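User: Okay, second chain of the day. Same drill as before: sequence in, C-alpha cells out.
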Amino acid sequence: MSNAMLGIILGLWSGVAMVLNLTGIGVRTALVCGFIAGLCVGDPLLGINVGATCLLFSIGYYTYGGATIPDYVTGSMFGTVVAKSAGVDAGLLVATSLALLMTQMDILGRSTTTVFQHLAEGALAQNNIKKMELWTIMGTVPWILSRAIPVFFGMLLIDNVNKLADFANSVQWVSKGLAVVGKCLPAVGFALLLSYMDLKKFWPFLILGFVLYAYMGVGTIGLALVGLAAGALYTGIGTEGGAE
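Assistant: Same drill. C-alpha cells below.
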C-alpha cells in the first residue's frame, strides 16, 4: 500500500475514531488503532503487538481535569508502520516520540474547539436552537483535524522516519538502547498505575499477582481472570460483613 493511501485511510480513521470516542464509543485505543494499521501494512499480528505495548505505555495516564497526555493511540499507528520495515524496537521508539509530539496537537484541538463553543452559547442566548446545534456539531471539526492532518502528512513522510530507524538499527549501541527502552517503558506505565492504588491496604493482591506471573508463568489474561475473581470475592465478603 502506498504512503498516500496509508495517509488517507489512517488519517480518516483517526478523525472518525476521535469523534466516536467523544460520544462514548471507545474504539480509539492503542490496541484497536495498532490492529488497523497492521491490517493496512499486511501484518495485523504486528499491529496487535505494537498496539498492546503502547497500551501498556499509557497505563496510569488519563485526562484528569482535561489534562493533555501522550497520544499513544496515534503513536501505535506510526509505530506499527515503522515496525513493519525496521523492527519492533524502532517502531516503539517512534511510537513514543510521536505520542509526546502529539500532545501539541491535542492542545491545539482543545483550544480551537472553544471558538465553536462560544458561538453555540451566543446562539443559545438568542434562542436560535438550530444554529446552536450547528455550532455544537462544528465543534468536532478541530478534534477531527487535530488527528487526521498529522497522521496523513506523517504517513506521507514515513519513509524518512524509516531511514532514521534503519540507521538506528545499524548502529549496535543505538539498537541495544532501543531494546532496553522498549522493555523499560511498560514498567514505567505499571509504576504509574501502582501509584494510584492503595497498596498499603491491597498489598496481598500485589504479591499474589507477582507470584503468579514471575514464578508460575501465568499470562496476562490469566492474571486478569484471577484479579476479577479475587475482586469479586473481596467485594462479596466485604458486603456480607457490612450487612451483618
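The two ends are 65 Å apart (CA to CA).

User: Thanks, on to the next one.
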